[in-house]
Amino acid sequence: MNWDDTAPPTTEDPATGAPDRLVGADADGEDTAVEAALRPKDLEEFVGQERVREQLDLVLRAARARGATADHVLLSGAPGLGKTTLSMIIAAEMGAPIRITSGPAIQHAGDLAAILSSLQEGEVLFLDEIHRMSRPAEEMLYMAMEDFRVDVIVGKGPGATAIPLELPPFTLVGATTRAGLLPPPLRDRFGFTAHMEFYAPAELQRVIHRSAGLLDVDIEPEGAAEIAGRSRGTPRIANRLLRRVRDYAQVKADGVITREIASQALGVYEVDARGLDRLDRAVLTALLKLFGGGPVGLSTLAVAVGEERETVEEVAEPFLVREGLLARTPRGRIATPAAWEHLGLVPPQQQAGAGGQQGLFGA
């Protein structure tokens, strides 16, 4: 299974300045602590990603049978789908310790050399957001992955010398949300690559029921289905919504999560039946009501909702596009017919045809 609480969606992440969102897939400190308790410990417990689980199981079983370290593994996919969880499962299945770091933390080749030189034989090194690692460190990683060796440069200029440093065999598990940014030489050095898909509602219901059991929450199947339907195909969001619905059920009801209680709770947290939150609806509302469905430029749309351009583009748009509510075109962003229907609005053309001439942006 898999993973991840934030304040209501009007607060901000202190690290990035982006708005915290109940349906955001990034985890904060509290999320990380809760995730540790909810994470499955082996592949059998892991819900969903059937093809990836089957393939990874073969890779790990074969490595154990040979008494060798597992091949390097690259996991790609959106945040919250279980990449970190799978890396921990790989270490557990191989009976090896795991070292966790991230691409942004490795800004110099020396940073990577220090980590690699301290690894034990068979240890799993989990490198999150591997596409954000610095280029010098990336080039050092090529040799480390292929030959289990790094060259440490001592001195500067013409007098600099390269001292070869042998490394014990280890398994690198790289995780990325943007596999296209990985250079081919790095991507080709992974023995197994897997893309994590979004979860179906039925799979999310299994995630929710398992998490509810671990959290000692009484939940009815209809309540789990209601939460799953608003979780954007992401286990971390499903677990986050479950905890917020649990709070509502404890304070406003008898503690049992029914469909009605789940619906009321998620209404309080501004997560609608399709999983859209305040920011998503603000973008759609501006696009429809102020600009008649578009096309409109990204910067103009961001000003209209009072957010930064990057926030609209990277936080709100991916889900809206995936849901078929918004489209990106060379002329700008446009709303689809499904967006008008979801917000219960009538496109300007239909308004004009039904009763009176309307302008491009409506009355």
UniProtKB/TrEMBL annotation:
Organism, as annotated: Streptomyces lydicamycinicus
InterPro entries (UniProt xref): AAA+_ATPase, AAA_lid_4, DNA_helicase_Holl-junc_RuvB, P-loop_NTPase, RuvB-like_N, RuvB_wg_C, WH-like_DNA-bd_sf, WH_DNA-bd_sf
Catalytic reaction annotation: ATP + H2O = ADP + phosphate + H(+)
Main location (coarse class): cytoplasm
Record protein name field: Holliday junction branch migration complex subunit RuvB
UniProt region (Head domain (RuvB-H)), positions on chain: 273-363
Record-stated family: Belongs to the RuvB family.
Region (Disordered): 1-29
UniProt remark on domains: Has 3 domains, the large (RuvB-L) and small ATPase (RuvB-S) domains and the C-terminal head (RuvB-H) domain. The head domain binds DNA, while the ATPase domains jointly bind ATP, ADP or are empty depending on the state of the subunit in the translocation cycle. During a single DNA translocation step the structure of each domain remains the same, but their relative positions change.
Chain's gene name: ruvB
Residues holding Mg(2+): T84
Cellular compartment(s): Cytoplasm
Domain AAA+ ATPase: 69-200
Sorted UniProt keywords: ATP-binding, Cytoplasm, DNA damage, DNA recombination, DNA repair, DNA-binding, Helicase, Hydrolase, Nucleotide-binding
Subunit field text: Homohexamer. Forms an RuvA(8)-RuvB(12)-Holliday junction (HJ) complex. HJ DNA is sandwiched between 2 RuvA tetramers; dsDNA enters through RuvA and exits via RuvB. An RuvB hexamer assembles on each DNA strand where it exits the tetramer. Each RuvB hexamer is contacted by two RuvA subunits (via domain III) on 2 adjacent RuvB subunits; this complex drives branch migration. In the full resolvosome a probable DNA-RuvA(4)-RuvB(12)-RuvC(2) complex forms which resolves the HJ.
Source organism, top-level taxon: Bacteria
